Amino acid sequence: MSDITNESHMTKKDEQSTTASDRVYKLVRQDILECRWQAGQRLKIRDIAAELGVSPMPVRTAFRRLGEDGILIIEENRSARVPFVSRQSFNEYLEISVSLECLALERAAARISRETIQALRSEAECMQRDIEAGDTLGYARRFNGLLMKIYVRGESQALIEMIESVWIKTAPPSREAFEEKGMVTRLNAALIAIIDALAAADAASAKEILTSALHYACKGVNLFLEMDQDQKLRPKAKKRIEEQYVESK
Questions:
Q1: Which of 46, 66, 111, 196 is deepest in the core (most CB within 10 A)?
Q2: What is the DSSP string of 222-233?
Q3: Distance (Å, rounded) from C-alpha 24 to C-alpha 190?
């Protein structure tokens, strides 16, 4: 009887650990999608465990899964690192993302409601006010989040999963560029223009605006990827992003 009880108890503990590791996996993956961490940043198991209020074991299990998925690089000293992405790989991912997101936008345009469009425009206008006030911290998360609210209206879970699989690669190297005021000012203007095109049932214009905005963002991220190779280029990268914004006005 004692052995059976103990076996049952261990099974429950295993189930609890699995549930906790699943939750950690989803939360860390979502944080990477939302550009919380930069490429190359180290994540310590004990820090994540303390933040999420769990023991180190489920974090270790979640990190191992994220490593198997290619989302994190597992290190020996009880930590993991957000992978770097080369310029070539980033640009290839970007082209894939443009194709997928344009398809998602086209599907959404045929299904999105007036009420949703109004809510999205209000959110984009709120983001614009924050930018004008100098608050660009976390803009990448808000930008991707608003786009995803549009894409899910296309009612294709497979398409959403494919977009996320690309974003998980492009989000970390984009984080710093997406906090430059010139960059986010133009991107937010593009968001509002996309929403206005959806309101006019003009999917073609919405896709054209999105494509232009993503290619513009790609140029900015590429400048920072160059900077990662030579830190002396950092001031030049920031200045060039601002110049690109002025040129595009």
A1: 66
A2: HHHHHHHH-GGG
A3: 34
In this structure, are residues 136 and 179 in contact, taking their beta carbons and an 8 Å threshold? yes
Spatial separation of the C-alpha atoms in residues 112 and 107, rounded to whole Å: 9
Long-range contacts of residues 225-232, Cβ cutoff 8 Å, at least 24 apart = 225/85, 225/86, 225/87, 225/90, 225/173, 226/87, 228/39, 228/40, 228/84
Nearest to 73 by CA among 110, 40, 119, 28: 40
Encoded tokens for 70: 């290619």
Distance CA(82)–CA(38), nearest Å, equals 7
Give me the residue label for tokens 């103990």: 6
**For position 239, what pLDDT does the model report?**
57
Which residues does the chain have with pLDDT short of 50? 1-17, 231, 233, 245-246
**DSSP assignment string, 168-197:** HHHHHHHTTGGG-HHHHHHHHHHHHHHHHH
| 177, 218 Cβ separation under 8 angstroms | no
What pLDDT sits at residue 243? 57
For 126-133, the CB contacts below 8 A with 24+ separation are: 127/188, 127/191, 128/188, 128/189, 128/192, 131/181, 131/184, 131/185, 131/188
Number of neighbours of residue 77 by Cβ within 10 angstroms: 8
Per DSSP bridges, beta strands 42-44 and 79-81 are antiparallel
User: What domains does the chain contain, in order, with CATH numbers?
Assistant: 2-81 (1.10.10.10), 87-248 (1.20.120.530)
Q: Which residues partner with 80 through β-bridges?
A: 43, 74
